[in-house]
Amino acid sequence: MVEKMLTDAGLDVALTAAASVDEAVHRVTRRTHCILVDLSGPEGDRLTGLRRMLAVSGTAAVIVLTGVDDVSLGIRALAAGAEDYLVKREIDGPLLARAVRYGIERRRADENERRLVEARLTAAENARLERGLLPVPLIDDPSLTHHTRYRPGRSRALVGGDFYDTVQTADGTVHLVIGDVSGHGPDEAALGTQLRMAWRTLVLAGHAGERLLGTLDTVLGHERRDDETFTTLCMVTIAPSRRAARMHLAGHPAPLLFTGRGPDTRVSALPDHAHGPALGLVPGADWPATEVELGEAWSLLLYTDGLIEGFAGDGSSDRLGTEGLVELARAASGRGMIGRALLDDLVSGVERLNGDALTDDLAVLLLSHR
């Protein structure tokens, strides 16, 4: 009778009938869209069978049919999880077909809402976790200001393969690092976080210079997923006097140095003639140091290559490069940009020249001394 009513109502279905709940439990499959449960029977067994079917229904809608005109029973069925409740002697083909369609669509909507809530909770948890992985600079020198911009290239990610950190040790020395793990996936993001934490630990333990880089190179060799992964890195150590610094480059672009104040600010890239290979490429490599005179008022801009690998202009096939970034920095300084405003202006300027948002991981660190 149910099959005839649905057919007459124009609902094309493949109907499977089961003589008992025990049989029905084993006949529900992933292709089942709707389950009609007959609540006719002894008073104590009416909801037992329904609960068993609900337990195996999966994404299928469950509609209750009964020959007993009992509103309280229908309410209890709905409370148990059924999509609808129908009295058999009061239904016809169109009503039953409409209930089936409604039940299926409501079940789909409920399932989509459940998945959406789960996705939001997962995303929120991941966001909290990833934000916790970003560093908090350890600086207590009031003459220094510290600004950063960080943006992973992966969609909906908060942490990428780029990393940075700043630590001031007990003797007043300030240590800066910025690095870029090759690749753009979650494995590279995890490796970047491991290297940053290892670097901070080594700095706080008193390591510096080539000794630190050699140990970090060993850490990379143990933690990377394959032998092809490498990491470029720039490390700057600023003396307690704040007038001099020592720089180590491991296959990484050299920082920009801003000296002077106001419209007289001079911008140049630090010399990169003394450098070593990226970490993870050459066992036992050397990373020579470059001594840098900073002067009294200065800013150091450390960045990853995501800032300079975009195009030098809309429609241009040339890359921006370090020279192009220097020109942008000079123009921004000439307009009086400093601190966070300077970083925002540089990033927006690079994106404008590229003709679109940058797709590579991006990390920028600006440390200024007044």
From TrEMBL:
<protein>
    <submittedName>
        <fullName>Response regulator</fullName>
    </submittedName>
</protein>
<keyword id="KW-0378">Hydrolase</keyword>
<feature type="modified residue" description="4-aspartylphosphate">
    <location>
        <position position="38"/>
    </location>
</feature>
<dbReference type="InterPro" id="IPR036457">
    <property type="entry name" value="PPM-type-like_dom_sf"/>
</dbReference>
<dbReference type="Pfam" id="PF07228">
    <property type="entry name" value="SpoIIE"/>
</dbReference>
<dbReference type="InterPro" id="IPR011006">
    <property type="entry name" value="CheY-like_superfamily"/>
</dbReference>
<dbReference type="InterPro" id="IPR001789">
    <property type="entry name" value="Sig_transdc_resp-reg_receiver"/>
</dbReference>
<keyword id="KW-0597">Phosphoprotein</keyword>
<dbReference type="Pfam" id="PF00072">
    <property type="entry name" value="Response_reg"/>
</dbReference>
<feature type="domain" description="Response regulatory">
    <location>
        <begin position="1"/>
        <end position="103"/>
    </location>
</feature>
<dbReference type="GO" id="GO:0000160">
    <property type="term" value="P:phosphorelay signal transduction system"/>
</dbReference>
<dbReference type="InterPro" id="IPR001932">
    <property type="entry name" value="PPM-type_phosphatase-like_dom"/>
</dbReference>
<dbReference type="GO" id="GO:0016791">
    <property type="term" value="F:phosphatase activity"/>
</dbReference>
<dbReference type="InterPro" id="IPR052016">
    <property type="entry name" value="Bact_Sigma-Reg"/>
</dbReference>
